[in-house]
Amino acid sequence: MKEIHDFTILECRQAGEHYVVLTLQHGGTMLPVVPGQFVEVQVEGCREVMLRRPISIHDADPQRGTLTLLVQIVGHGTRRLAEMRVGERLNLVYPLGKGFTTEMPPASRALLVGGGAGIAPLLYLSKALGTKGLRPRVLLGGRTAELIPVREAFEPYAEVCVATDDGSLGHKGLVVEHPAFGEPYDMIYTCGPTPMMKAVARSAAQRGIRCEVSLENLMACGIGACLCCVTDTDQGHRCVCKDGPVFDISTMQKWYQC
Description:
16% of the residues lie in helices and 34% in strands. The protein is an alpha/beta fold and 258 residues long. The model has no long low-confidence stretch (mean pLDDT 94).
């Protein structure tokens, strides 16, 4: 079930130079949201942007009727979102897509690996796993410390590890080179740049660890009508917006081996 609704901006907070955090109020009864789902945002007041923009749900509180988005500022549309003010309204189509699996046996060890804007859906996932009695480990990566925003938001819900290419924060190197990555886990979740996710998926497959990836293909409609986000899986071509964005790597060998 999904709806199109105007949300009111409660907060627009800069998170470093390249990101902004938007907290939105529904104003009514908000639909249930699963970690890993996303919204399609109508960007008004920006003539360069005609289509809605897909953005991962960073956090949600259905009881309060709030959604939080972590927006990376990369173009005209996201720059316009970063300039919005408290009280303005955003029209969203939500909740879209298939989210992460959160049902796991007690005492399971979970690793959440995020890079860049792929960090966004992992906060709500961390909270959801916490409601199951788990405290996951979160491994965040980026080229520099400036490109790893909101890491402090994870600390109440997860053990946080960081890897940066230049060594400006945490381990110097890639996330798959971090000592924490090689430890045993029952489940690995990942979202971020495609090369990073493929490396995580290959390692998980080799080690026999269940793994889910959240793909970030270009999307236009968000409901599987335009077919611009199609990806090749072991089960044939699938729309990332409708059949994903979260996929179990057991169906994605074609994807992560190429």
